[in-house]
Amino acid sequence: MPVATWNGREIARSDDTVVVEGNHYFPADSVDPALLEDSAMHSNCPWKGVASYKTLVVDGKRNVDAVWYYPDPKSAAVEIKGRYAFWKGVTVA
To answer: Which pLDDT belongs to residue 81?
Structure first.
């Protein structure tokens, strides 16, 4: 079962991830919302759409924009709607 960790803390765990371009997209309900802060960051993918970001906060440490998601993905990526992916030092194993 894939588990995402950062700063010694489990961020997400689920046997229902969707892997796209090598990234595990975890169901939103598998992530503790207390660990997430909203971010104004956005990026655009030609086939997935506009990504939004969140900052991880664990034990007072912040990992800015380490979480991304597609609130309204294009039809080619509809399977990742409502899911979070991680980078910037977050380990998924």
So the answer is: 97
- Give 51's strand partners: 43
Helix (H, G, I), strand (E, B) or coil at 49: strand
What is the C-alpha to C-alpha distance for residues 31 and 13, in angstroms, rounded to an integer? 8
| Domain boundaries defined on the chain | 3-92
Q: Please write the tens of the pLDDT for every residue from 17-70.
A: 999 999 999 999 999 999 999 999 999 999 999 999 999 999 999 999 999 999
Residue 35 CA from chain centroid, whole number: 12
Amino acid at 33: P
Output the six-digit token pair for 58: 């664990």
Residues in the chain: 93
Question: At CA 25, angle to CA 64 and CA 86, rounded to 5?
Answer: 20
CATH class of 3-92: mainly beta
Confidence at residue 77, expressed as pLDDT on a 0 to 100 scale: 97
Q: Token pair of 91, please? A: 């380990």
